[in-house]
Amino acid sequence: MDHKQLAALMKDFIDRTMDLYEHMDTHRVCPAAGSQIGERIKKQGIPRTGRPLAQVCRQMEEEILPAASLGQHPRSFACIPGPISLLSWMGEMMTGAWNPHGGSAANIPGPGAVEQELIRWMCGLAGYPESAGGLFVSGGSMANLTALTAARDACLPFEKRDKGVAYVSDQTHSSVSRAFHILGFQQEQIRRIPSDSSFAMDVKELERAVRRDLFLGLAPFAVVATAGTTNTGSIDPLAEIARLCKGSGLWMHVDGAFGASILLSGWGRGMLKGIEQSDSLSWDAHKWLRQTYGCSAVLVRQQSRLVRSFSSHPEYLEDLAGAPEETNFWDLGPELTRPCRGLKLWFTLQVLGQEQMAQDMEHSCRMAQAAAQELEKDPHWEIISGPSLGILNFRYVLPGLSPDELDRLNQQMAAQVTAGGFAQILTTRLKGVQAIRLCTLHPDTSPEDIRTTIRLLKESPALQKAQSRRPHPARNKSCAPVMSLQARPISAASMGRSSSPIHGL
Ligand SMILES: Cc1ncc(COP(=O)(O)O)c(C=O)c1O
Q: Which of 1, 158, 167, 351 has its CA 20 to 30 A from that of 9?
């Protein structure tokens, strides 16, 4: 390997990537359809002998990486976007370069101290006592799985596992039922408690369900509350759920993968009152704390609960285990070898500080509010939820269309704006209808971005066509289905941004 050539290529890559970020606004959010990249990669296969470094670099940068949606784009409004800070990228690069083995703190005193300090700080923000602890894992799904393993082991004796029952809401993230499945529970052992009109868990229903299961001789052992649901950004009534869990000896897990980050702000801590009484918490840094993917924390009120579930002492690790009173990261979760995922977060926080992060989150919430205000100008828009924690759900209601036609229309409107490249928008299903969902997490999203996105939705071919086909109000209500409309990319002209062309259009 020619190190000089490698260094030169790395530097060039960094320069060009900085340029990409500087002009992110002019790039499509999602790649244009029809690139055939999958076919080409398959045909190319894995070579028996290597290829020139510069050639592989070029292919990565020009062909492979651009064929991906940019979750870090200021107009990526889909799922929970990843509005990364370039500081996180830098922290990750530096960590990857040194590649510390994150299994035992004794083996990596520096990086180990950083991760332990972050965990201590996060536990403090959650209001946990000194006995608390935790671990950086790859994401919210792994954090939920890790915490729920501890919940099962702490609150459900082995011989009662077939009678164990856990409680989630109809808005709980799908990773939770997957975690219960991995832990050996059947779907029938999971109660989906209905949510109320604000999409938060209905605690009266929860109480009723727990009482019923106890009466039936079952063994309720855990409740999963959510701080910031994926669909609507709703917060379950944490204090009430905590009271119920305490009274009934149930483990309370809070899935704060999305919403726990607001603990950095005073207003956020107020909104999450009750979280301090929970037994465990999932908190993704690769969502609202602006980290590149693979950075999440699982926190528990009593670190010993994780040790009980995960600790093992193979003879080949004894020399690295440190002093007997020390707890190693490999004793707290399912991984042995693990990257030091927290270093990039520490790096970012050291440079930005907590206040900047909190201000960025406030901006996110303001952008969702700006979207709601924009929609209120036209009575055809119906707001279905929010804005809550930067998430807004709404739909366009065209009189005369059937419920199915309205669902399809709204889905097509979102798909067409996404296909045009200006923004990425997905729909979800709420209260039995298809809703257009905006999640505005990026600190660089501007009010103009929001206004233009809503205008593009209104100018989408699907809506134009549906409006032109709409039967006269006096005629029969059942009209031609919107289903036959094909999603077409929106032209640059219709995006009205000729002074700021989107690359690739
Ligand atoms: C509330 C919630 N929990 C869990 C997850 C899963 O997190 P990850 O995708 O990091 O595994 C998500 C992902 O969006 C989420 O929003």
A: 351
